[in-house]
Specification:
This protein has about 160 residues and is mainly α. Helices cover about 70% and strands about 0% of the residues.
Amino acid sequence: MARLAASDEDEALDIVQDAMLAFVTRYAGKPEDEWAPLFHRTLQNRIIDWHRRSSVRNRLRSWFGGGSLGEEREDPLEKVADSSSPDPAVSLLRKDLGEAIERALRELPLRQQQAFLLRAWEGLDVAGTAFAMGCSEGSVKTHFSRAVHRMRELLEEYTP
């Protein structure tokens, strides 16, 4: 989730590390069944904080003529061959679909992205997602529904 939000592996790792430290500091004594929603709430708060700080930094950089934080850098791992699939065509299709899903997720508004990732990928229920996002269960249902509909539109060419 942090990698999608930050679009930069290093920034995402910093966000997750900061969230983990804050989580352990504040919630280590909580029951284990409460950890997932508490951690995701901490992570979402860190992602929102990062977005706020980044927008201020980018605004300042643009005023002074510098580049933005979101500049694309080449990933050296992209050059490594994938040995998990013997069929290159299958590998290409999987990679293409994965990239399409990531692009579609990036097009969602932040709250829809959060609701979708927490519900669909992390498997939290509505109550846990609401707690993690700091909103009502009704808001989670609305954000998730809109996200699912938008993802279907964006990934329409990949459905049978």
